[in-house]
Sequence to fold (224 residues):
Amino acid sequence: DAMVIQNPRYQVTQFGKPVTLSCSQTLNHNVMYWYQQKSSQAPKLLFHYYDKDFNNEADTPDNFQSRRPNTSFCFLDIRSPGLGDAAMYLCATSRGQGAVTDTQYFGPGTRLTVL
Amino acid sequence: GQNIDQPTEMTATEGAIVQINCTYQTSGFNGLFWYQQHAGEAPTFLSYNVLDGLEEKGRFSSFLSRSKGYSYLLLKELQMKDSASYLCACLDSNYQLIWGAGTKLIIKP
Fold:
């Protein structure tokens, strides 16, 4: 089945220790998104790729970086995690060819704990 | 500014009907989505509306009025598994998704 996969599902890291979260998709979608979601809050878009074009949200901290080496994979790097970065990180994909087909499909998420 | 408003929490009884409202103010409009999110899990797509009117999909229906900046999600024959958060999100003129904070729906037997 075509899907969005995130690894790991749960990640524990220490304050200040770099961590990388991964996302892969078999949907062959053009667009990949990274969201941060804290409890009882809306998902917050960090950045997205349209093919290889990187789009950073204005309020995304420099501590967050992303890489998309190919169509299928996208990575979220947190260079120096702080306690405030503990959250669920959601990866999503969409075709990006117009509103009707631009439905975003989400992976299961990675819950990050910072000790 | 852009804003999506929906109630924080609602309670309903198993087998009943519930309507979750959403009002929006966005820079342009290219459609409205409803997602379901169970605790600790990712959002899953429920519906998309871009034209005025009602879209029915099994027990779930979604309504849109663009002139009023208003949508609702209607859930019929509620089941315990429908206990979840329901997120309303709009595509703005830049095709960016603007999210509401979600409505936590609690189903009681």
